[in-house]
Design a protein that fits this description.
The protein is of the alpha/beta class. The protein has 6 helices and 12 strands. The protein has a single domain, classed as Metallo-beta-lactamase, Chain A.
């Protein structure tokens, strides 16, 4: 999905196809959201396209959203960002990575830089609003790009359901409050929504098809 000639948003499914990772580029500059898969596969994509990686961002700390982040950040000498409330999850769930043949994340890996609610310029002329959305994990985040009306929800919210709360640190009450807070932002119905897994939607779709997306 390309919004203009400068900023390009792409939902990528690197093998094994599981998580909706997002590559955002402006010319030769790029950032990655939820770098799932193997770092070597991301390196290949970036090198083939001639992209310079500036940073990696994670909606939360589950391994299927950060599996490539530490090694990729080290390989390109860039920072990766995540809310520090999810740092305890780094290295948790490596058995999931075993299922997909992905290298473990070790506790001595390159650690993320903490981010919380606020506004960041992540590429020249591209501002991102960071919204805290605890519940699926304590440090869950959503990322919104107001100029382009694009929202990345991670696993807080799916097309017709919500993230599970039975993993360590999950809290159903917090999750429902996070979704309520998002609803009350009253984003434009045409806002394009990329979820952590499954089909992309819009705010209008969620209002009509997701029973959890309500005030």
């Amino acid at each position: 999905m390309q919004k203009n000639n400068e900023i390009k948003f792409e939902v990528l499914h690197l093998p094994p196809t599981n998580t909706n990772s997002v590559l955002v580029s402006c010319g030769n500059d790029a950032v990655i959201f939820d770098a799932w898969g193997k770092a070597k596969d991301w390196e290949r994509v970036l090198l083939e396209r001639g992209l310079k990686l500036h940073a990696i961002y994670a909606t939360h700390g589950h391994p299927d959203h950060i599996s490539a982040a530490p090694a990729l950040a080290r390989a390109f000498n860039v920072d990766w960002y995540m809310n520090s409330n999810d740092n305890y999850l780094i290295g948790w769930g490596n058995e999931l990575l075993d299922m997909f043949g992905i290298p473990h994340i070790h506790h001595d890996c390159k650690m993320p830089v903490n981010i919380s609610a606020g506004v960041m310029e992540i590429l020249p002329g591209l501002n991102m609003e960071i919204m805290e959305s605890p519940g699926h994990t304590p440090g869950g985040l959503m990322f919104y790009f107001p100029k382009y009306q694009i929202l990345l929800t991670g696993d807080t919210l799916f097309s017709d359901s919500v993230g599970r709360c039975d993993f360590p640190g999950g809290n159903e009450e917090q999750l429902m409050q996070s979704i309520n807070n998002l609803y009350n932002l009253d984003l434009d119905d045409g806002t394009y929504v990329v979820h952590g897994h499954g089909q992309d939607t819009t705010i209008d779709w969620l209002k009509k098809h997701n029973k959890f997306f309500t005030a």
